[in-house]
Each structure stands twice: as structure tokens, then as C-alpha cells.
Amino acid sequence: MLRKKATTEDGSHTFYLPEIDEHYHSTHGAIQESTHIFIKAGFNQIKKNDINILEVGFGTGLNALLSMIESDKTQQNINYYGVEKYPLSKEEYSGLNYPELTGFDCTPTFHAMHDRNWGETIKLTSHFKLTKIKADIKDYELTPLPFFDLIYYDAFAPNKQAGMWDKSIFEKIYQHAVSGAILVTYCVQGAVRRNLEQVGFVAERIPGPPGKREMLRVIK
Ligand SMILES: C[S@@+](CC[C@H](N)C(=O)[O-])C[C@H]1O[C@@H](n2cnc3c(N)ncnc32)[C@H](O)[C@@H]1O
Hints:
Helix 1 packs across helix 2 and helix 6 packs parallel to helix 7. The longest helix has 13 residues. This protein has a single domain, classed as Vaccinia Virus protein VP39 (Rossmann fold), CATH 3.40.50.150. A hairpin with a 6-residue loop joins strand 10 and strand 11. The chain contains seven helices and eleven strands. The N and C termini lie far apart (35 Å). By secondary structure, the protein is an alpha/beta fold. The site of S-adenosylmethionine (SAM) has 18 residues, from helix 2 and strand 5. S-adenosylmethionine binds next to helix 2 and strand 5.
């Protein structure tokens, strides 16, 4: 699928997929959106010292990068699993401006996140370990992984990729999450919320990032 780099309103990059007319992030601001949904409404709510995170749709690695930077501030240890079916090429990820916009000197680390092998666990900082998994989440078996404390659910919108919001995926994740685990997503569609509730999560709609009234946070 053809991916075109685009710049969002906060100056950070994203990709646009003309074939399905869909962006990887909010056009109001990729970094702004990720910070609001995944870091503030997700990561900052977990008070444990050691946190297992699952990301569905690793994509540009923006959520992993922001989590890594945040873990350095909070001194919490993250074991991050990013599942991705369609990895970016080197040309695509090396042109992304996230490291320079974060205000941290993290370009080599960001590139290492992408360069390193799929399936390999790498320690990127004293608080952040990453394992990228090249797989389709629909048929990927989670059982060899540790139970998750936090899930970043960052798939394309249901009207573009309906199968990614299926109850069977949520069921699999629910069964592999600790009690009290949090799943955050930008998507507040009623059908998605009901699917999450039917597998056992308790859902709440909370204020979304600029340009989006609400987002969804669910708890096991
Ligand atoms: C909305 S984008 C978000 C990506 C990423 N979180 C980011 O911030 O760049 C959705 C991601 O889901 C990935 N994806 C699509 N279908 C998938 C599947 N069946 N299994 C795993 N990942 C998938 C896409 O390739 C894309 O990277």
C-alpha cells in the first residue's frame, strides 16, 4: 500500500494512505494526539514500577518513543511489545521528525527501534525494553508474552479496517491482561465500546485530544 508522508498541525509527521483515505494520526497533531491518548490517559495512570505494554499497530514507533521518554521521567520500567503487520521501510522511518520534536537527543535510539530485528528484545534505555512483533494481530498468539498492564489500541478506524475492532481480538487481549489493566484508544464508536464491554472491560469516555471531543479508556 502506498504511504505518503504528511505534516500535521503541530508540525509532526504522519503517513497518509490514499487507498483507504486514512491517516496514521490525527491531522490536528500527531505528537499532540499520542501524548494525550496514550501517555496521559494511559501510561500516566499506571502506578506500578514495571509495566508490560502491548501496542496494536506499531507503525511509526511514535507511541513507543513517547513512552520511552516518559519512562525516563517517571523512572518506571517498560517492557513494550509492538505488533505490526505492515512495517515501514528505512526510507520512511528515517524521514520522520519525531526525535527532533521531542526535545531529546534520541534520533539514534528512534532509528534503532526500527532498524533492529523483529522478534528480538532490545534494551534501548535503562528503563525501556522493546520487542517488535511482525504479525497480524488477528491470528497472533499472545500466550508466550507476559500479561499486559496497558494496551495501546491504535488501529485504523473501524470504517476503514473493520476487522481490527472485532470482539475476538479484544477477547484475546482481555484474557492476556492483568486485573486492572487499561486499554486506551482514540475510537469512541458505540459498536467498538460494546465489543470491549462484552468481553469484560468496563468502559469510560473521557475528553479527547484537540479536534476530538472524546476518547475511550477501558479497564479490566
Ligand atoms: C492508525 S496506524 C497507527 C500506527 C502507530 N501506532 C503510529 O503511531 O504510527 C495503524 C497501524 O496498524 C497497522 N496494522 C494494520 N493492520 C494490522 C494487523 N492486522 N495487525 C497488526 N497491525 C496492523 C498498520 O500498518 C498501522 O501501522
